[in-house]
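REVIEWER CHECKLIST
Item 1: Sequence provided? yes
Item 2: Single chain? yes
Item 3: Sequence as submitted:
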Amino acid sequence: MNVIIYGGAGSIGSAVAEAFARQGATVHLTGRTPQTLEAVAARIREASGKAETAVVDAFDEAAVEAHADSVGRIDVSLNLVPRGDVQGIPLVGMSTEDLTRAVTRGLTTNHITAKAAARRMAGQGEGLILALDSGSAHSSPMMGSTGPADAALDTFVRNLAMEVGPSGVRVMGIWVAGILETLTLEKLRAVNAAIDEGAIAGIHANLDALRMLRRSPRLADLAETIVFLASPAARGLTGTWVNATGMFVS
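Item 4: Structure as written out by the authors:
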């Protein structure tokens, strides 16, 4: 099995890559920084897994197509490319540029990578295209550009699944919100500059309390869910979004 992960050096990408590698897949990690990609690949290889890296700009259609050609057969394509979301500002207080950036970037990169995968998977008669967002299209105030961007991606996944389904290609999305290992000060400040160190513990506790299970999903939980969706056991699933938030959204 060949798995391409766009944005493969991040916290989620690396966890998913390691989970697929443990199942015997060859993971193809792409991104813009070779050093971080190679660090993830080295961990996988040290654990006797198979990993390849490539510097690929997922907003460059020619680069994505060329990389897909070099991989050959593609069984799973997962897009984790950052969109530049802005949060913590009321919609009426946001600039139009801040609001639309995540929508445009999210649709652009997912369209480019999904096209590359779908064309090749159709020839194979099978394959899985995966997208990820927070599920914030469902009434999430103060989430800024994230809600509209998630709504656009939700719709894109469902429509694409209907179009490519007759070729045997599955398209799905995963809602993920507030994985604690990813909520570092650096990452939170990237979307809300007002966050400080004292707020982190409170944010974690609040997120736990909001879940039906009173426990926030961890990276390992998400990674195993994604591996399951790519397995034969999930072959009847397409055109939908899996809520992996611990029912943080519905």
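Item 5: Key structural point noted by reviewer: The longest strand covers residues 127-133.
Item 6: Recommendation: ____
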